[in-house]
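[step 3/7] inverse_fold.run input=structure_tokens len=329
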């Protein structure tokens, strides 16, 4: 599975070949990104990238419930690797009922069929991968749709550059990932700590350690952490945890906040691994963090002797979910 992660520069190139092929015309009051798990994280990351660049509000929906403001002035992007995720299908059908302009990113399934029937713009991601491994392809797909819809948050050249940096850095990142995995291995509970606005990357790291390494992870985000979680660390029920703390070296405030967190964890006698994010742009840092934690989580699975690709309990839930969500697509 490590090979699949190391293939990310190639996946970016493949997605770039379709750059500009899909867009939605119109004037939009808001952008809503819908998806769950390894597909839903694309929304979180796009919201992060949009923060400093887009004046149109961006919302992420990881649910079957959509905001009441969704209207014909909404650009609604449904992201589902399989195209068969009940929450995403339900949300998308509701958005269509409200007249939203919908674009779809998927490898197939129900959503690809709905897109074909309703002539919705579709950015196809290759089948045969795991959703979490398809991350850079789906992300490039959404960035391309936004760019072609007059809501650019990253241009083609920026994505190309970030892809090239990943290509030249990936072996080094694999080495760092081994260190992260070894550090995480001696921990009963892993804490992933960062500063706002990078919470999407901590959530991504958490999900990777959940799904690939089969382990529970807590996410701590400053400065909100300083207003509640911090007190919980005074007298926790369990004490065998370790923290991985990462920050954007170009964000002075963020870095200071993480340094404060690190001192708190250490003050409680807990080991901390501190990681400054590498990358020439925010997109570069996103890809660096996603690859680092993806590879680390696969390596941790190896140390623990578990199969990184299997997600048996998600399958159990999806079977159950088919009796919960009722839609006609
Ligand atoms: C990630 C993973 C899950 C799925 C999620 C939604 O690799 O397997 O987190 O991404 O269950 O499914 P899709 O992505 O098919 O919409």
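[step 3/7] decode complete -> sequence:
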């Amino acid at each position: 599975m490590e090979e699949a992660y190391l293939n990310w520069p190639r996946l970016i190139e493949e997605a770039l070949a379709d750059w500009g092929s899909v867009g939605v015309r119109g004037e939009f009051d808001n952008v809503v990104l819908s998806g769950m798990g390894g597909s839903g994280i694309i929304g979180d990351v796009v919201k992060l990238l949009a923060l400093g660049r887009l004046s149109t509000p961006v919302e992420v929906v990881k649910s079957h419930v959509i905001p009441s403001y969704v209207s014909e002035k909404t650009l609604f992007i449904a992201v589902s690797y399989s195209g068969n995720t009940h929450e995403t299908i339900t949300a998308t059908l509701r958005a269509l009922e409200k007249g939203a302009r919908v674009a779809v990113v998927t490898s197939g399934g129900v959503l690809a069929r709905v897109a074909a029937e309703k002539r919705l713009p579709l950015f196809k991601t290759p089948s045969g991968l795991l959703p979490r491994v398809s991350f850079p392809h789906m992300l490039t797909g959404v960035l391309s749709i936004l760019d072609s819809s007059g809501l650019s948050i990253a241009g083609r050249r920026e994505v190309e550059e970030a892809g090239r940096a990943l290509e030249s850095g990936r072996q080094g990142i694999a080495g760092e990932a081994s260190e992260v995995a070894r550090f995480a291995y001696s921990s009963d509970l892993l804490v992933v700590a960062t500063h706002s606005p990078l919470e999407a990357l901590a959530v991504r790291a958490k999900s990777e350690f959940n799904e690939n390494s089969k382990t529970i992870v807590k996410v701590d985000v400053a400065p909100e952490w300083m207003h509640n979680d911090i007190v919980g660390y005074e007298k926790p029920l369990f004490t065998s945890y370790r923290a991985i703390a990462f920050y954007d070296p170009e964000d002075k405030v963020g870095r200071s906040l993480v340094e404060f967190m690190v001192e708190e964890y250490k003050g409680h006698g807990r080991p901390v691994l501190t990681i400054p994010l590498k990358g020439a742009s925010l997109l570069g840092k996103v890809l660096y963090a996603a690859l680092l934690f993806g590879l680390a989580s696969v390596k941790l699975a190896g140390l623990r002797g578990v199969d990184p690709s299997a997600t048996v309990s998600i399958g159990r839930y999806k079977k159950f979910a088919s009796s919960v969500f009722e839609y006609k697509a």
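[step 4/7] annotate
The chain has a mean pLDDT of 97.
Residues 8 and 283 are 14 Å apart (CA to CA).
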